[in-house]
Amino acid sequence: MEDDLLDADYAMPALTEPRPTLFTLPEAHTLLDLLDHFSAAGDDWGTQAGCFAAELAARAPSREA
C-alpha cells in the first residue's frame, strides 16, 4: 500500500462515510509532531511548517491536559 501512495496515478479510495470536520486530539498531536519535524529543515517549507505547527499548538490542548 505504501508504494501505491507514491504512484502518481494512484487514486484515493472512495469514502463510504463522511470525514469528521475536525481532527481528533491524537491526530492533531501526530500532525503537530510531523510539522515540528519538517520545520527543522530550515528552508522555506520548514518555515511554513513551523508557522502551521505554532498555529496548531495554539489551538489544540496539550498532551498533558
| H and E string | HHH
Helical stretch tally: 3
- Largest sheet properties: none
Structural class: mainly alpha
- Helix percentage range: 55-70%
By DSSP, the count of extended strands is: 0
**N-to-C CA distance:** 35 Å
Unreliable sequence segments:
none
Strand content: under 5%
**Which shape, going by the Cα principal axes?**
flat
Radius of gyration: 15 Å
Give the quaternary arrangement of the chains.
single chain
Mean pLDDT score, rounded? 84
Short characterization:
With 65 residues, the protein is an all-alpha fold. Helix content is 55%, strand content 0%.
What would you note in describing this structure?
By secondary structure, this protein is an all-alpha fold. It contains three helices and no strands. Helix 2 runs antiparallel to helix 3. The model has no long low-confidence stretch (mean pLDDT 84).
Break the fold down into its secondary structure elements and pairings.
Layout: H1 2-6, H2 25-39, H3 44-59
